[in-house]
Amino acid sequence: MKRKMHQVASPVTRVVVMMAFLSALFLAPANPSLAASDTKKAPAVARTTVVEHTEARIKELQTVLKITPAQEKLWENLQQVMREDAKEMDALVADRDEKTKMMNAVERMKFHSQMTETRLNQLKKFIPPFEELYASMSDEQKKSADTVFEKGIMRKHKSKRK
Fold it and tell me: Residues near 130 by Cβ (< 8 Å), separated by ≥ 6?
């Protein structure tokens, strides 16, 4: 019984810890010394929105997965979920950016928790349309999808890697 509970709890715990870690990475200042000092100016960096990143990811996935005309409807369903999630995340990031200077450590942790919960809910919405699309894929497409998602959804897929 303990082993079965461990088999379920361990992956869930890993996902939650990973989401918290990723949220902290994405939401923390790029240079900790800038956070500690008001005298230094942050370098001007072009910031990509989640929506922009998602649009690029959609194009990349469509190419890598070689979506067929028969799979277009399933692909459109998945794209819709991805776009809605990106808009939601952009709104949260904008809210954070607006309030970040006034947040204390506790408020920041609560915000990270909110981001993690949001991302987890987004993954729950993403899985059903992705399962449908995956079920319609050829073996070659499934192999490509397995490779892309094995490396992580946020990393670049290198189709020529051996």
Answer: 78
